[in-house]
Amino acid sequence: MDFDALFHSHLAAIRASVHEGFRFRYLPTGRDDEFVLQGFRVENGVMDTFLAHAADDAVAARYRLSDLELPDPPALWRRDGPVDEVVQALLALPAHGARGSPVSGFPVHFGIPRLRRPRGGALDPNSPPDVLSRIPQPRCGGCGPRSGAPRGSRHLGGGR
Fold first, then answer.
1. Which pairing describes strands 57-64 and 35-43: parallel, antiparallel, or unpaired?
2. Tens of pLDDT along 20-44?
3. What is this structure's pTM?
4. Are 131 and 112 in contact (CB under 8 A)?
5. What does DSSP say about strands 106-107 and 74-81: parallel, antiparallel, or unpaired?
6. Kind of pairing, strands 46-54 and 35-43?
7. Under a CB-based contact definition with an 8 Å cutoff, are residues 138 and 107 in contact?
8. Per-state percent for the chain, helix, strand, coil, to nearest 5
9. How far apart are CA 148 and CA 30, in angstroms?
């Protein structure tokens, strides 16, 4: 089996997302030694993100940064399918606020465990462990946070 030919279009789409400023991390699925690749970038008041479970099983979405504080933030745009198709569709979206960019949200849940918090704000002891604390930190150059001014609309002068 020629794996290069089989996965070429999917890897090309992920490489294109790297060139467009996406960063990456692996998220645990809850099964032993199984992770999901998450690509994400924050620009112009939105976060574009995709999760790749397998070459033929991916989901991509765009969220307003201000909505990410909500328990189930609505996505401005969503698509699922093979990695190459969803990543290329995400990269083809107009910049947030530009003519033709998605503007209304609808609920999307990527299937990542969420923490349940009671009204007092303390974690429920029966909650799943904090997912973010289990995410491995990047080990290669260029994978971690960039030096210099932060990007994104939450910081003055950020974004593109």
1. unpaired
2. 999 999 988 888 878 899 999 999 9
3. 0.64
4. yes
5. antiparallel
6. antiparallel
7. no
8. 20, 25, 50
9. 35
The pair of three-digit structure tokens given for residue 61, joined into one six-digit string: 């979405």
Cα separation, 2 vs 50, in Å, equals 26
**% of the chain exceeding 70 in pLDDT:** 65
Q: Return the residue matching tokens 């397998």.
A: 54
Confidence class of residue 13 from pLDDT cuts 50, 70 and 90? very high
Name 35's bridge partners: 28
For the record, the structure tokens of 114 come out as 């969420």
Measured in whole angstroms, the distance separating CA 1 from the mean position of its chain's CA atoms is 31
> Which among 62, 70, 53, 128 is positioned nearest to 92, based on CA atoms?
62
147 C-beta neighbours (distance < 10 Å), count: 5
- Encoded amino acid at 72, one letter: D
Listed in sequence order, the residues at least 6 apart from 35 whose beta carbon sits closer than 8 Å to its beta carbon are 26, 27, 28, 29
Tracing tokens 């991509």 back to the chain, one arrives at 60
